[in-house]
Amino acid sequence: MDLITKQYKTINAITGPLVLAENLIGAKLGEMCVVELTTGEKRNGQILSIEGDKAVIQVLEGTSAIDSKTSIVAPLGQTARVGISMDMFGRIFNGFGKPIDGLPEIIPEKYMEITGLPMNPAAREKPDFFIQTGISAIDGLNTLVRGQKLPIFSGAGLPANELAIQIVRQAKVSEAADFAVILGAMGITSREAFFFRKSLLEIGTLERTVAFINQASDPTIERLFTPRIALTTAEYLAFEKGYHVMVVLTDMTAYCEALREIGIAREEIPGRRSYPGYMYTDLATLYERAGRLEGRKGSITLMPILTMPDDDITHPIPDLTGYITEGQIVLGRGLHRKGIYPPIDVMPCLSRLMNLGIGKGKTREGHRALADQLYSAYARGIDVRRLVAIVGEEGLTELDRKYLHFAEEFERRFIGQGNIERTIDETLDLGLSLLSILPERETIGLRAKKG
Question: How far apart are CA 6 and CA 90, in angstroms?
């Protein structure tokens, strides 16, 4: 059905990806539009703001070749929507939800607005149950829980994308048949896009995976749509089809850069480091769509991945993300230089909901005590490593040498597992094996808690 009922030739300015139009009678904030060029080409747009009879329209395919005198603006009377179907499994789409895998477009079972709403806190259920990523540094020490928001903080050049694909390949819940993974990639290079597409085809999990890929060469505005379309798809699968969905979004830094670029084009007053002042609210509207809803079988677990500029964890993007989410996984450049993969620096890592997803009947009895002991021993080993830089190994006691050896083995064998997938039992058994490096008196706390 053609939704176009009114057309306007009232464009009076074009700035970057934005078109400024006047006299759009009855237009609504967030409403989708069609901008028709004199050549007959039609481009999609969205109304970002309305002041009186003036509207700022964001053109999704870019504003090149748009003529302010002859081009036509036609509001569609509806907000941005995406067609969703169970046939999306195994498919790869662009950031607007259009297929880019060479296969035909899907026949939607339902159209859903992509804006969505954060979950009502009163309707939330407590996140619970363990999600096995197959990565020991996460499963053993910073456990991911179903319905949690657990971001990964990376640095430039660190293998965050490789880690994302590994998580997509290995992630499991107890009800494996009802588990799905959605990947939303934003602002990635052609090489990275090729890596994602090739990896998704090779890992053999496409039957439970949906991918949305936005490249750096695509329109900037597409990056703002990609996570919303991914989360809308997740809401459909989780709360209407009963799936337990893991959403992996990479790279949220590209998303925030796009948010800043659009804000500058709109001549908004910048906030901290020139990012929009509303960036916290904007990120919260995305992250808070994850969780469990009362009375619904499914759940949405979110793992946003972001690159910290200059490895600065106090930068606005990781800083605000840390406020909203429930912990963080941090990739360390020092471990990466040692050739350790995945280079997860466990000391600044945290999973605030870990205790809800571990223990008897979920992972294994004594999991918490073992994780605490591993953290304690590794922290002691790092302290000894610093001491060696001052006094040399000759100045160490025999116990200090054992802790130093433990830290080296912990990094090499526990963190540095490569692309090998480990079950939670294998992870915990390895942790116990590593603790045997230390004298029994040093692990008395673990034995007491087990007893």
Answer: 39
CA dihedral (381, 416, 245, 302) positive or negative: positive
Residue 256 vs residues 25, 112, 193, 207, 277: alpha-carbon distances, Å: 32, 24, 19, 31, 12
Q: Parse the chain into domains and list their residue ranges.
A: 11-79, 82-357, 367-450
Looking at residue 415, the DSSP 8-state letter turns out to be I
Best CATH choice for the domain 11-79 from the list 2.40.30.20, 1.10.10.10, 2.40.50.180, 3.40.50.620: 2.40.30.20
Rounded to whole angstroms, how far apart are CA atoms 142 and 271? 33
- Residue 235's contacts (CB-CB under 8 Å, 6 or more residues apart) are 112, 116, 289, 300
> pLDDT tens digits, residue range 55-89?
888 888 888 888 888 888 888 888 888 999 999 99
What pLDDT, on the 0 to 100 scale, is given for residue 48?
Answer: 85
Domain covering 82-357: architecture: 3-Layer(aba) Sandwich (3.40)
Single pTM value for the model:
0.89
Continuous H helices in 44-157: 136-139
Q: How many CB atoms lie within 10 A of CB 13?
A: 12
| pLDDT at residue 267, as a whole number | 80
